[in-house]
C-alpha cells in the first residue's frame, strides 16, 4: 500500500513538473465583498494561486478617478504585467490585464465593443513556455452582459484565431449565466467543452461565469476553483485555475 501511495505521489509530482498553472480572475476593481478596495489583498490571492499565467478582468488601470492596481500586483507577485484597457480616458483606465512568470513575446488588443454598450475587448499575447520558440497564445477577455452582444463578441474572437498551429488559451469572465447559452455553443465549434466549476458569487458560488478553454483540448489536464478564505472576500468572483500540459504529445 505504501509503495502504491508513493508511486501515485510521484506520478502527480511528475505531472506538475510537466504542467503549466493557468488562472483567470475577475478582481471586481479590487473591491471585496466587504466593500473595501484592496489591490494588496488581490495580490495575496494571486500569490496563493502559484500560477504561471493569470488573466485578470475589471482591473483599475489609473486615471483621476481610480489608482492603477497593476504596480501593486506586479511588485507583490513578482510577475510581469501587461495592461489591456477597454476604457481609456483621462478620468479612468479600466479593463483586462495579464500577469506572467514567463516571457511575453508579442501583445495585441482585440476590440470587442458592441454598439453603444460598455466598451469590451480582449488582451491577446504570445507567451514563451519552453525556450524553443514555440509560443502559447493567451487570450484574456470579459464579454458583455447581453446574449446578442456575446454572440457578436464570440464570432470576433473565433475569427481572430488565425494561427491554427499555435496552441490557444481563451479565458476570462464570459458572463454566460446559462450552462449552454448561445455563446458557449458557438465556442464549441473551435474549443471542446471544458470543466466549468462555479465561481460566482464568491461567498456561495452558483454560476460558472469564468472559463478556461484550451485548443488543442487534450492539453488541458484539469480545472478547479480556488476557494481560500481570502479569495471569498477579496472579490465577488473566485479564481479559476487550470493545469495544461507543456507539449501536445503529453
Automatic annotation (TrEMBL):
Listed InterPro entries: Endo/exonu/phosph_ase_sf (IPR036691), Endo/exonuclease/phosphatase (IPR005135), GPI-anchor_lipid_remodeler (IPR051916)
Cellular-component GO terms for this entry: membrane
MF terms (GO), sorted A to Z: catalytic activity
All residue ranges annotated as the Endonuclease/exonuclease/phosphatase domain in the record: 23-237
Any one Pfam family match given in the protein's UniProt record, by short name: Exo_endo_phos
Descriptive protein name: Endonuclease/exonuclease/phosphatase domain-containing protein
A GO biological-process term: GPI anchor biosynthetic process
